[in-house]
Amino acid sequence: MDSSLTAAILIVSTTAALDPLTDASAAVLREVLDIDGAGKWTVADEKIVSDNVIDIQKQIMQWTDGPDAPNFIITTGGTGFAVSDATPEAVASLLHKQAPGLVHAMLSSSLAVTPFAMMSRPAAGVRNRTVIVTLPGSPKGAKENLQAIIKTLPHAFRHTKPSSKTLSNDPTLGPTRRHRESPYPMVSVDDALAMIDEFTPQPEIVHSKVDQDIIGSVLAEEVKAHEHVPAFRASIVDGYAVVAPKDGKLKGVFPVVGVSHAAPGEIGALKEGQIARITTGAPLPPGATSVIMVEDTVLRSMTDDGKEEKEVEIQAEGVKEGENVREVGSDVKQGTTILSKGEQISGVGGEIGLLASVGVAEANVYKRPVIGILSTGDEIVEYNRPGALKLGEVRDTNRITLISAAKEWGYDVVDLGIAKDKSNSLEETLRSGLRQADLLITTGGVSMGELDLLKPTIERSLGGTIHFGRVAMKPGKPTTFATVPVKDNAGKRVHKVIFSLPGNPASALVTFHLFVLPSLHKQSGIYPVGLPKVPVVLGHDFPMDPRPEYHRAVLTVGEDGQLTANSTGGQRSSRVGSLRSANALLCMPSGKGKMEKGSKVHALLLNPVRSS
Predict the structure, then answer these.
(1) Is 14 buried (19+), middle (13-18) or exposed (0-12) by CB count in 10 A?
(2) Which of 113, 254, 300, 605 has the fewest CB atoms within 10 Å around its CB?
(3) Which UniProt keywords apply (predicted)?
(4) Closest CA to 359 of 223, 507, 183, 553
């Protein structure tokens, strides 16, 4: 992001216009811009006007309609219900685009503090290329409102002041004309994730059979039961179906007049004073009201051939109507919602079993994107190529590793092989991948070398947009996220996502889980996206880095339920072994020195946690 975003502050107060010393809001807003804005902001101008619509509009237009318009205008004051409060009306009529999301964020934040926030009437939107928001006049209210939106605002200015400049190298100019420093702004991990969420396509709905292939899919509609479960009155136990008297007294010897097994077939009706042998899950004979467990009976006589029961004594007391009986629809009633929109069909079996039990054979789900995976580089050779490596050759670790990771998360993969460091070859492979897959992952070719051709190929050959090309993190700084316009099978223009990950194996795997997985989840309809985050305690001292680091670690859980993290060892980005046995990425903050044993941090879970 730009490190010199500009803001202008407009104090709307007749009192402060007469005596500027009475204003206390401006200093508070400058402090929020400086501290909560992470040093990205410069206050370019600050003015005070009276509670007058013309004065307010005149000052705003002077700022927004000139060549040096600020990125952001903040007004404070005049948003209440007093007769003189007219700031929202003055600003709203100047806006070219409304920003209801900013208004919602500000009101939600303030309402969480005090119900009186509902008395504020904020307005927000864009005039020309400047974002404008109106804040309350009280310093406290103004601070709370600005803090609610300041961290995500820099992302908005990528769109209010877009750059059409292509930042990548022109490969035809040779190494003497290449960039010596990356032209791509360094973005935070949070900003990168926000851009991924914004530019990842919405999920597509498809019709699917209810079979093993639906596992992992997310329902795009609520599903209702097509029939009752059970569809008939069924026995819960092995025993004897009876007609229970009203007083519950059933002790005595009864003739066995029939048998009901858990198999389709006709069953004779049962009269009072008769019983029928019945198995678990079998339908009750017509007329039967209850079932007595076989354990509460004694055989008193049998047929002459000794193969069938003739009379059985019932020893149970207080038999109630409906005892040991599953009534029709007692598990699931026909027409009731059994699964909600947005629920994922897990591999545990509960959801697919429920669908099958009520006769649902098909359902609308969100399509799981197909992933194309490609390695790049003249030095890369197949991992399984026989023979010794030549000087400079490197076995392709990334492709098989990322294919395995993608399949583990339930996604189908197209293996696009290895592309050499030649623009035409790379472009051809990328175009082929875009035809076959919904999302592409490439590794290598995103740093500063003269043969790092991915960014220029995406921008110059494919007409794509690189949304970010560097991230403030370790490992994975060169991670690149782009979208490319293509035509779908119907000839409609759509955008597909390309993630260009670093060539170092550990970096590629970390950035796959941190950035690619949330994009895959969004396209699949899975929410929340990304890896689950949990608090952990460090099991030993951990070194810190000037950049936020995603440290590969093993989490274990103690008898007290505490999660403890221990490093997998050396964290060099080329060392894929740092992910061997790792089940978490520790979210280590930037800093110097070390974080001591026992310190608390958050961890992103890659795999199940082990017991210590």
Answers:
(1) middle
(2) 113
(3) Magnesium, Metal-binding, Molybdenum, Molybdenum cofactor biosynthesis, Signal, Transferase
(4) 223
Q: How confident is the model at residue 172 (pLDDT cuts 50, 70, 90)?
A: low
pLDDT at 534 over 90: yes
Alpha carbon distance 75, 132 (integer Å): 8
CB atoms near residue 183 (< 10 Å):
13
Pairing of strands 297-302, 309-314: antiparallel
The b-or-e profile of 405-440 (16+ CB within 10 A means b, else e) is bbeebebebbebebbebeeeebbebbebbbeebbbb
Which tokens hold the place of 297? Answer: 């009976």
pLDDT of residue 608: 86
Q: Percentage of the chain with pLDDT > 70? A: 92
In 3D space, the residue among 191, 278, 291 whose CA is nearest the CA of residue 250 turns out to be 291
Q: From start to end of 90-191, where are the E strands?
A: 97-98, 124-127, 130-135, 186-187
DSSP secondary structure string for all residues of 510-569:
HHIIIIIHHHHHHHHT-SS-S--EEEEEESS-EE--SS-EEEEEEEEE-TT--EEEEE-S
Segment 209-227 shows an average pLDDT of: 95
pLDDT of residue 353: 95
**Mean pLDDT across the chain:** 89
pLDDT, residue 234, reads 95
Q: At what angle do helices 25-35 and 139-149 cross, to 10 degrees?
A: 20
| Three-state secondary-structure class, residue 380 | strand
Calpha distance 430→372 (Å, rounded): 9
Q: Does 574 have pLDDT greater than 70?
A: no
Contact between 27 and 151 under an 8 Å Cβ cutoff? The reply is no
Mean pLDDT of 535-563: 94
Inform me whether the pLDDT recorded for 55 exceeds 70. yes
Q: Which amino acid is at 175?
A: P
Residue 55 neighbours by CB under 8 Å, 6+ apart: 49
Give the per-residue pLDDT at 184.
83
The single residue listed with the structure tokens 């935070």 is: 188
| Least-confidence region, from 166-175, 186-195, 482-491 | 166-175
98-110 mean pLDDT: 89
Give 293's strand partners.
Answer: 239
- Could you say which DSSP state residue 249 is in? -
Q: Rounded to whole angstroms, what are the CA distances from 369 to 183, 309, 352, 481?
A: 31, 61, 21, 17
| Closest by CA position to 505, among listed 398, 368, 373 | 398
Work out the angle at residue 290's Cα, subtended by the Cα atoms of residues 289 and 296, and round it to the nearest 5 degrees: 150
Helix (H) or strand (E) holding 28: helix 25-35
Reported confidence tier of residue 3, pLDDT bands at 50, 70, 90? very low
Residues 207 and 362: their CA atoms lie apart, in Å, by 7
> CB neighbours of 312 closer than 8 A, spacing ≥ 6?
240, 253, 254, 256, 275, 297, 298, 299, 300
Handedness of CA 381, 385, 390, 391 (dihedral sign): positive
Confidence (pLDDT) at 448: 46
**Residues 338-355: tens digit of each pLDDT:** 999 999 999 999 999 999
Output the six-digit token pair for 451: 């043969």
